[in-house]
Inverse folding.
C-alpha cells in the first residue's frame, strides 16, 4: 500500500488551505443568493410572466420572413423565436406590451395580414408563481432526504452526519453558483428564466451531488482501512486519488454538452450554459467545499473563516 | 473493514454466460422497438425513429376555446371561471397522457391550447366537453308521472313538484329528452310563469314542439339536504371515477364508470335514492334515477332496495350508458377532473402548428445525440484504451436501450429532454471511469486482469451505489411533486427521464461493461497491459 501511495499520487495539501477555499465558497454562495433572489437579478421569461399574443392571417405573398422583418422594422428583435406557424396563420408571441404598443403592433402587422382579434390578447403565465414556490419546496424536501440517506449510508464512519451535510452544502453551492453566473451573464445576453432553466437546475440537483459522494466514499474507504494517518492527510490523500476520476467525468460530460452547444446551440444556449456551470461546479465543490468542510469540522476551527480573526486570537494569546 | 470480495470467485462461464444472454436479449428487444416494425406494434408515428417529440421540436395542434358565458357575467367572474376551467382542462390532458401540453389563458374568456402531435381528436374531445354530471328524478303529480303534454296541454304557471325550489346556484328546470336521450326541451320557471327553451337556451313556443315528445318524462333535479341547505346532486360530489370493464367470465358484461361519492355526496345520493324508491312500484318509470351528462340522458337505472342495508346506498355506484372502453375512460377522466364551470366553444382551429423552435432543430438534435455518443466514446477509448473501447460499446448499448424505453413508454422528448439525455452520456460513463481508475490501480499492483477487474468493480461499487441512490431519491421526490400538481408536468417528465437514464446507466456500466471485460480476461489481450493504460514497466516488474 505504501508503495502505491508514494508512487502514484503527488499529494497536494488541500486541507491546509481549507480556510481560503471555504471562504471563497461562502462568498460565492452569498453573491449567488443575492443575485438570484433580489429583484432584477433573474429575469423571468414568457412562461412565468405571460405576455401579449397575436394571430395574424397573412395576405397573399406574406411569408414567415415577411412577418419577421416586419417585426424587426417595428422594433422587436429576436423575431424568429417569436413566430409559430399555425395552419396557414402566424402565431406571434410578444412580451408585456402597453396598450399603445399593442395598437401600434396591430396596425403595423395589419399591413401584411389580418389580425384575428378573437385570438389576440394577453396570455397568462403557463407556470404560476405557486408552481415555482411548490418546486422550491419539493427540491428542499429532496435535499433533506438526500442528507438523511447519506448520513445513513455513511453510518459506519464516525460523525456520519458531517458527510451528509458536506455533500448537501456542496450541492447548495453548485445551485447558487449556477444561479449567480446565470444572473450575471444573463444580464448581458438578455437571458430569461424559462422551463429549460428549471430543468437545468433540476439536473444539477440530481447529478452534481455524485461528485461529492465519490470523494466522501474514498474518505470513508481509506478511513476504514486506516490509510492516511491524521484526518487532514486522509482527506488530502482521498481527494488526490479521486482527482483523475473527477477530471475525466467532467471532461466527458463537458464534451457531450459542447456537442449539443455547437450543433444545436441557438435557443438553448442559456440552458447549456447553466448545465456546464453546474457540472464544473460539481467537480469543484466536491474537492474544495465538501472535503474542506469535513476537515474544518474535524478541527472545529470555524473562527478561521472570519478574516483576521486568527490573528486577533494570536494577539490575545 | 476489508470487504471479502477480492477472494470471491464465480464459476468462470456460468455467471457471465447468463449475463451475456441477458444483455443480448435486452439489446435485441431494444433494437426491435426502434425498428419500423416496433413502431407498428406500438402504434408510433413514422420518422424520427418513432419517438414522440414535444411541441418545440415537432409542433402539434393549436386550438383556441372560448367560454360561453351568459350575458350578465362580469369580466372578473369570467376570468375566475376560466381559471377553474383551465385547471380542469390541465388535469384532463395530463390524465389522458399528453405530456407537456401548453395551456394558457387568453384574455379573460378564452384558453389557448397547444398539444404535441397531430392525432389529437380524442384529446380535444376530452377537453371541449363540459362534463356536467347531474342526477335527476321523474316529477310526480300525485301518484302519476308528469309528461311534457301535462305542461303543454294545460296552462300551468308553475311546476307540479316544488321539491327543488329554493336551491341556489343551479338553474331550476324540467328537462325533456327525445328517444335518443338527447335533450329536447327545457322548462324554466321565472316570475310566476313557465318559459320553454330549446337546447341552446333560446325561447320557443310550446305549440311548436314536436308531438312525439308529448310522452317524454319530466326530469327534475335530484335535490337533497347538505348542511341544512338544499343542493342538487352533481358530479361535484365525486371524489373519483374509474372506467370498469366487465370481467371475462361475466355473462352479459357492460363497460361502465365506477364512481365514489365524498361524504356529502354519499348522504345526498342516499336521500334521493330512498325518495325515488318510495315513489312507486317496481318497474314503474318513477322508480328511475336519471343520469345526465351535459343534459344528455346516459342511462336511467331503476332504484332497487339497497343491497347493503335498508337505509344506506353506500358511497360507491356505477354509471352505465352504452360506452365503449375509450368513452368510459374519457368520462372517468372528465368526472375526476371536475366539470367545467361553463361550456366551451372552439373559436380558432384546430390547426396544425409548427414547432416552436423550427423544423431543422429536430435533425440537429438527433445529430447532437450521435456526435455526443461519438465524442464521449472516443475520449474513453483514447484515455482508457481497451476498457475504454468496452465502455464505448456499453455507451452505444446504453443509448439504444434508453431511446427504446423513451419510445415504449412513450416519453415526450423536448429539446431540453434530448439535451438532458446527452448530458447523461457523460454521466453514464462516470461509473466506468470510477471502475477503470480502480482497475488501473490494481493492475499496477500486479494483479491479473480478471482479479483487477473484479476488484475495480467491487471497490467502485459503494460510490456508484450511494451516488445513484441519491439521484433516485431526487427523482422520486420530484416525480411525486410533479404528479400532485397539475402545472408541474415539466418537473415530472424530467424526473422520469432522469430515472430512466440513471437506471440504465447502472446496467450498462456495471453489467454490460463487466461482462464484456470478463469475456476479454480469458483471452490473449488480457496480458498486454498497455492496452489498459498501464505502463509496460509495471508489467515487467510484476510478471
Amino acid at each position: 500500500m505504501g508503495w502505491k501511495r508514494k508512487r502514484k499520487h503527488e499529494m497536494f495539501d488541500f486541507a491546509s488551505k481549507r480556510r481560503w477555499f471555504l471562504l471563497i465558497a461562502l462568498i460565492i454562495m452569498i453573491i449567488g443568493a443575492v443575485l438570484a433572489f433580489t429583484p432584477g437579478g433573474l429575469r423571468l421569461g414568457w412562461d412565468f410572466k405571460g405576455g401579449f399574443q397575436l394571430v395574424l392571417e397573412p395576405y397573399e405573398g406574406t411569408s414567415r420572413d415577411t412577418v419577421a422583418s416586419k417585426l424587426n422594422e417595428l422594433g422587436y428583435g429576436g423575431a424568429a423565436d417569436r413566430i409559430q406557424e399555425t395552419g396557414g396563420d402566424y402565431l406571434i408571441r410578444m412580451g408585456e406590451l402597453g396598450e399603445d404598443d399593442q395598437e401600434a403592433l396591430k396596425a403595423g402587422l395589419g399591413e401584411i395580414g389580418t389580425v384575428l382579434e378573437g385570438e389576440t390578447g394577453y396570455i397568462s403565465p403557463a407556470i404560476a408563481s405557486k408552481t415555482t414556490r411548490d418546486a422550491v419546496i419539493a427540491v428542499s424536501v429532496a435535499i433533506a432526504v438526500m442528507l438523511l440517506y447519506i448520513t445513513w449510508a455513511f453510518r459506519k464512519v464516525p460523525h456520519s452526519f458531517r458527510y451528509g451535510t458536506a455533500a448537501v452544502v456542496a450541492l447548495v453551492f453548485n445551485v447558487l453558483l449556477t444561479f449567480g453566473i446565470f444572473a450575471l451573464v444573463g444580464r448581458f445576453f438578455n437571458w430569461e428564466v424559462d422551463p429549460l432553466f428549471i430543468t437545468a437546475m433540476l439536473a444539477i440537483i440530481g447529478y452534481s451531488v455524485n461528485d461529492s459522494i465519490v470523494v466522501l466514499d474514498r474518505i470513508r474507504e481509506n478511513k476504514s482501512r486506516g490509510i492516511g494517518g491524521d484526518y487532514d492527510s486522509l482527506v488530502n490523500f482521498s481527494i488526490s486519488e479521486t482527482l483523475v476520476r473527477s477530471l475525466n467525468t467532467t471532461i466527458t460530460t463537458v464534451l457531450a454538452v459542447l456537442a449539443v452547444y455547437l450543433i444545436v446551440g441557438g435557443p438553448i444556449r442559456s440552458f447549456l450554459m447553466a448545465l456546464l456551470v453546474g457540472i464544473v461546479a460539481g467537480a469543484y465543490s466536491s474537492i474544495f467545499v465538501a472535503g474542506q468542510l469535513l476537515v474544518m469540522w474535524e478541527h472545529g476551527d470555524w473562527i478561521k473563516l472570519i478574516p483576521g480573526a486568527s490573528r486577533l486570537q494570536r494577539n490575545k494569546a | 473493514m476489508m470487504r471479502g470480495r477480492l477472494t470471491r470467485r464465480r464459476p468462470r462461464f456460468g455467471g457471465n454466460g447468463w449475463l451475456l444472454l441477458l444483455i443480448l436479449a435486452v439489446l435485441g428487444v431494444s433494437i426491435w422497438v426502434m425498428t419500423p416494425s416496433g413502431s407498428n406494434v406500438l402504434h408510433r408515428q413514422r420518422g424520427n425513429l418513432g419517438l414522440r417529440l414535444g411541441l418545440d421540436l415537432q409542433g402539434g395542434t393549436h386550438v383556441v376555446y372560448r367560454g360561453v358565458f351568459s350575458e350578465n357575467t362580469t369580466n372578473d367572474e369570467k376570468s375566475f371561471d376560466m381559471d377553474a376551467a383551465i385547471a380542469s382542462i390541465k388535469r384532463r390532458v395530463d390524465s389522458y397522457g399528453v405530456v407537456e401540453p401548453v395551456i394558457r389563458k387568453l384574455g379573460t374568456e378564452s384558453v389557448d391550447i397547444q398539444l404535441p402531435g397531430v392525432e389529437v381528436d380524442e384529446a380535444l374531445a376530452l377537453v371541449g366537453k363540459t362534463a356536467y354530471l347531474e342526477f335527476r328524478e321523474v316529477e310526480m303529480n300525485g301518484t302519476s308521472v308528469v309528461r311534457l303534454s301535462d305542461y303543454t296541454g294545460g296552462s300551468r304557471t308553475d311546476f307540479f313538484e316544488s321539491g327543488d325550489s329554493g336551491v341556489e346556484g343551479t338553474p331550476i328546470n324540467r328537462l325533456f329528452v327525445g328517444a335518443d336521450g338527447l335533450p329536447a326541451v327545457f322548462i324554466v320557471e321565472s316570475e310566476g310563469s313557465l318559459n320553454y327553451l330549446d337546447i341552446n337556451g333560446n325561447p320557443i313556443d310550446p305549440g311548436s314542439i314536436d308531438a312525439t315528445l308529448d310522452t317524454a318524462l319530466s326530469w327534475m333535479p335530484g335535490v337533497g339536504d347538505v348542511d341544512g341547505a338544499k343542493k342538487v346532486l352533481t358530479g361535484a360530489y365525486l371524489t373519483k371515477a374509474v372506467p370498469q370493464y366487465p370481467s371475462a367470465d361475466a355473462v352479459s358484461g357492460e363497460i361502465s364508470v365506477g364512481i365514489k361519492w365524498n361524504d356529502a355526496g354519499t348522504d345526498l345520493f342516499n336521500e334521493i335514492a330512498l325518495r325515488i324508491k318510495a315513489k312507486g312500484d317496481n318497474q314503474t318509470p318513477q322508480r328511475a334515477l336519471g343520469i345526465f351528462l351535459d343534459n344528455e340522458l346516459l342511462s336511467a337505472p331503476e332504484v332497487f332496495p339497497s343491497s347493503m342495508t335498508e337505509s344506506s346506498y353506500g358511497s360507491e355506484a356505477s354509471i352505465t350508458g352504452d360506452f365503449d372502453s375509450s368513452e368510459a375512460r374519457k368520462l372517468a377522466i372528465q368526472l375526476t377532473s371536475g366539470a367545467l364551470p361553463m361550456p366551451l366553444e372552439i373559436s380558432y382551429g384546430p390547426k396544425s402548428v409548427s414547432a416552436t423552435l423550427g423544423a431543422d432543430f429536430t435533425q440537429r438534435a438527433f445529430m447532437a445525440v450521435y456526435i455526443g455518443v461519438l465524442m464521449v466514446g472516443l475520449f474513453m477509448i483514447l484515455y482508457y484504451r481497451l476498457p475504454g473501447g468496452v465502455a464505448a460499446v456499453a455507451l452505444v448499448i446504453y443509448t439504444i436501450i434508453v431511446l427504446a424505453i423513451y419510445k415504449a413508454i412513450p416519453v415526450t422528448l423536448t429539446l431540453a429532454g434530448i439535451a438532458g439525455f446527452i448530458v447523461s452520456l457523460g454521466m453514464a460513463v462516470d461509473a466506468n471511469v470510477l471502475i477503470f481508475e480502480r482497475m488501473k490501480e490494481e493492475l499496477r499492483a500486479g494483479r491479473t486482469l480478471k482479479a483487477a477487474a473484479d476488484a475495480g468493480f467491487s471497490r467502485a461499487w459503494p460510490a456508484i451505489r450511494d451516488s445513484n441512490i441519491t439521484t433516485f431519491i431526487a427523482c422520486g421526490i420530484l416525480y411525486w411533486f410533479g404528479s400532485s400538481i397539475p402545472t408541474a408536468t415539466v418537473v415530472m417528465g424530467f424526473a422520469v427521464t432522469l430515472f430512466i437514464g440513471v437506471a440504465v446507466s447502472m446496467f450498462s456500466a456495471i453489467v454490460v461493461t463487466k461482462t464484456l471485460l470478463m469475456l476479454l480476461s480469458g483471452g490473449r489481450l488480457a496480458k498486454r497491459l498497455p492496452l489498459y493504460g498501464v505502463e509496460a514497466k509495471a508489467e515487467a516488474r510484476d510478471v
